[in-house]
Design brief:
By secondary structure, the chain is an all-alpha fold. Helix content is about 55%, strand content about 0%. It contains 20 helices and two strands. The relative contact order is 0.13.
């Protein structure tokens, strides 16, 4: 995002908005790096070991090269490997294992489409629970009915999970023993060939896994901070996070809509409004590390459970800060539970450490959270919420941001608003100002 070389814009002592200058050359961002880094959240959500999706991507791309897949096929496979667990945050009702797997796989494919990825990528994700013998848990496809990318993903993720738990040799035995049952014999043959030549597991214990995965993208793709693809990725991951609980199903959209309304009222430049929108959409990415039983608990949390909850902004920061160009965004997104008087978490930042963008996000987050229904209470009316926020202003909340929220007239709007609509609104507002 537009980071001004990583420096945060700060407000004055009175909380006035500071205008951030437009960069002369807007930075470009690697889509592969964004998705690879955000896949850490998918590992949290699926209960997988850290960097499982990235290691699976590396293994899968090695298998694809060994099988001599075409560049276009490899490109579809690449993002399917990283996003294979995109549908696993949802907890569908029902006891039928096949139905649950089918819903999760189909949801994963839907989220890939939301990110504007090719249909082949979406289909590959939707079929990852199929088995070579037709005894899978989704559509019951068999053999060549299953996309080759899905067959590679199944082998790669199995190799990684068993290697992490038991070691490389037992992992390979699982593939060999289930050849023709779960796994495509051709894919298993490719894995054995790579292993014999010492190329299958090479470098998977190194700390620079993210860089390895990014380097394997067949068609390097870059976007700017105002690009529709970047916005779509942020929207998709917001959807993934919010799906963890029915009580937060549209929370990130609600925070983004409120944040945009506040930023517009404060007169921030259009680029900064979009920056705030993206920070809002991704602010809870670290919540993927919180178990569902804690998020949905209707009784008082224990001290240990509160510690788990309070750690989620730190996870947000770590995930987003691993993306080059997201330095400022990681700071702002991770600050959504801070308060101007230093009583917030996770760092206890104070007013002079919080930029206007962070202050906007703080107000937008608490506004949407109070208006929405939670396991332990009903949603509150807008005027009640505003009264509560005013009662803690200026001690905790920026007065200018609170005033902008109130005058914007926005309620608990958690609807999906696409980038084109936001940009049209910003353009219309700019025209009125001229």
């Amino acid at each position: 995002m537009s980071s001004e070389k990583g420096k945060r814009s700060r407000s004055s002592d009175k909380g006035k908005a500071s205008q951030s200058p437009e960069p002369a050359d807007p930075p470009t961002l690697r889509v592969a790096e964004i998705v690879s880094a955000l896949s850490q959240a998918l590992d949290f959500g699926s209960g997988s070991p850290p960097w499982h999706s990235v290691r699976t991507c590396i293994l899968g791309m090695r298998l694809a090269a060994e099988l001599r897949l075409g560049t276009e096929q490899q490109n579809h496979l690449y993002y399917a490997l990283l996003l294979k667990d995109a549908g696993w945050t949802v907890n569908p009702a029902g006891e039928n294992r096949r139905d649950i797997f089918a819903i999760r796989c189909e949801r994963g494919g839907t989220l890939a489409r939301l990110m504007r990825l090719p249909e082949q990528t979406a289909q590959s994700i939707a079929c990852i629970s199929e088995r070579w013998n037709g005894q899978g848990n989704a559509q019951g496809l068999a053999r060549d009915q299953i996309p080759i990318a899905s067959r590679i993903i199944l082998a790669a993720q199995t190799l990684d999970m068993f290697a992490i738990t038991f070691g490389p040799e037992p992992a390979m035995r699982v593939l060999v023993e289930n050849t023709g049952l779960w796994f495509d014999p051709t894919v298993v043959k490719a894995a054995r060939s790579l292993e014999k030549r010492g190329r299958l597991w090479k470098g998977l214990e190194e700390p620079k896994l993210l860089a390895q995965a990014v380097s394997l993208e067949p068609h390097p793709t870059v976007v700017s901070d105002s690009d529709a693809t970047l916005d779509a990725i942020c929207q998709a991951f917001a959807t993934i996070v919010d799906a963890k609980s029915p009580f937060t199903f549209y929370h990130s959209n609600g925070v983004a809509n409120a944040a945009v309304a506040i930023a517009r009222k404060l007169g921030l430049d259009n680029s900064r409004v979009l920056f705030v929108r993206h920070a809002a959409l991704l602010h809870d990415i670290g919540k993927m590390a919180i178990p569902n039983e804690i998020l949905q608990k209707s009784t008082e949390l224990t001290r240990a459970e509160w510690q788990t909850v309070h750690a989620h902004p730190a996870h947000t920061y770590r995930i987003l800060n691993s993306i080059r160009g997201f330095g400022e965004l990681s700071e702002v997104a991770a600050s959504h539970h801070e308060r101007l008087n230093g009583t917030g978490y996770y760092r206890g930042l104070t007013a002079d450490q919080l930029s206007i963008e962070a202050r906007i996000l703080i107000v937008a987050d608490v506004f949407d959270a109070l208006m929405a229904k939670r396991p332990y209470r009903e949603g509150m009316a807008r005027e009640v919420v505003l009264q509560l926020i005013r009662s803690k202003t200026p001690e905790q909340f920026d007065p200018d941001c609170v005033a902008a929220l109130e005058s914007s007239g926005i309620g608990g709007d958690q609807s999906y608003i696409d980038l084109h609509t936001v940009q049209a609104q910003l353009g219309a507002a700019a025209g009125r100002r001229r």
